[in-house]
Every structure is written in structure tokens, then in C-alpha cells.
């Protein structure tokens, strides 16, 4: 003899249908949503300088090691109407990542920039800026598009590291050079003594 299973009750039958259709609806909604993807990762924006947003960017370029070298000045620095020696603002050099992580800044006290940064003109009439550490001139930038920046690694301030240019005599900067306020900022720096 064959054992027979009891017939489902009306309540069990309704419950089975509700569960079945709930699973179908859940499956369909999951299919309609498409494959699950992780939330988009927002990377930090690529910058053109490492000055603070309100500051004047006198100069900035991307180094061969893909960091930024920027000459930054206080807001309105380039618009000061008096003599450069009387400018109450500040200026400094900064090296950092393309995403705004500052690694080096010089001088330590930007308000003392007059001791370390100076400007002048080359014999070819290119305006230039140079920075001097305790060891001597370590940074030089001019208006020449071919070789706008040179660095003297042995004169870098303590703790600074900059990869050398690919070929001796090449600019330390790649083609990405920003100098919208270069001349105006240079006019506010003290004149070079040599």
C-alpha cells in the first residue's frame, strides 16, 4: 500500500502562494536593478598648484617626478602699490603632490621671504626669481619657455628632495607651466644682489 500525504489546508495553500509570488517579485526586482557595483570612488582632483585657494600663484609647474613646484604669495601681494621692501605680505615656495599634499615649503616663515627670495632680469631681459638657502641659490625660474626652472640639488634646504632633470641642463619642469602672475609677483620681490 502506498502512503498518502494529507492534503494541504486552505491556509497552507495561501501561504505557499504568497511566499512563491514574494520570491518571484524579489527575484524580478533584483534582476531589474542589474548587477551590484561598488559605490564610485572619488579620487582627489588633480591640481595645477599647491598654493592655498585665496593666495596668488606667482608660478607653478609639474616636476619630472610628477609633483608640483609653486611660488605662492599672500592675497593681493602682486597689487601692492608701495616699494617691494615695504610689502606687508608673504611669499614662499612649496613642493607637493598633484592632489595637494604639501611635502616641502620654503622659507619656514613665509613672512620672512625678503631674506630668501629675490628677482631680477637676465641679460636677455627675461625676468627671474631665485631662492637662496644657507648653502646658496637652490631655485631659479625665469620667463624663458625652454628652460624655465633650474635647481641646484646640493643647495636644497634641509629635508628637501627633488629628482634630477632627465638630462643635465634640462628644465626641472615638464611642459605644464603656469605663470599668469609671474611678472607681477616678481616686481614685488626684493632685487637680486648678484
Automatic annotation (TrEMBL):
Keywords for this protein: Signal
Signal peptide per UniProt: 1-32
Protein name per the record: Uncharacterized protein
Protein's organism: Hydrogenophaga electricum
Amino acid at each position: 500500500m502506498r502512503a498518502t500525504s494529507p492534503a494541504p489546508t486552505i491556509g497552507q495553500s495561501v501561504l505557499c502562494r504568497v511566499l512563491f509570488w514574494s520570491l518571484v517579485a524579489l527575484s524580478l526586482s533584483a534582476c531589474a536593478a542589474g548587477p551590484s557595483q561598488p559605490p564610485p570612488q572619488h579620487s582627489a582632483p588633480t591640481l595645477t598648484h599647491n598654493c592655498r585657494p585665496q593666495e596668488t600663484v606667482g608660478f607653478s609647474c609639474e616636476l619630472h617626478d610628477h609633483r608640483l613646484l609653486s611660488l605662492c604669495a599672500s592675497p593681493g601681494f602682486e597689487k601692492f602699490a608701495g616699494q617691494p621692501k615695504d610689502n606687508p605680505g608673504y611669499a614662499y615656495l612649496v613642493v607637493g603632490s598633484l592632489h595637494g599634499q604639501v611635502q616641502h615649503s620654503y622659507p619656514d616663515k613665509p613672512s620672512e621671504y625678503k631674506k630668501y627670495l629675490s628677482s631680477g632680469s637676465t641679460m636677455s631681459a627675461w625676468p627671474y626669481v631665485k631662492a637662496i638657502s644657507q648653502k646658496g641659490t637652490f631655485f631659479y625660474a625665469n620667463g624663458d619657455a625652454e628652460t624655465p626652472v633650474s635647481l641646484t640639488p646640493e643647495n636644497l634646504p634641509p629635508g628637501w628632495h627633488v629628482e634630477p632633470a632627465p638630462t643635465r641642463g634640462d628644465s626641472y619642469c615638464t611642459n605644464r607651466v603656469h605663470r599668469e602672475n609671474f611678472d607681477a609677483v616678481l616686481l614685488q620681490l626684493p632685487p637680486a644682489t648678484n
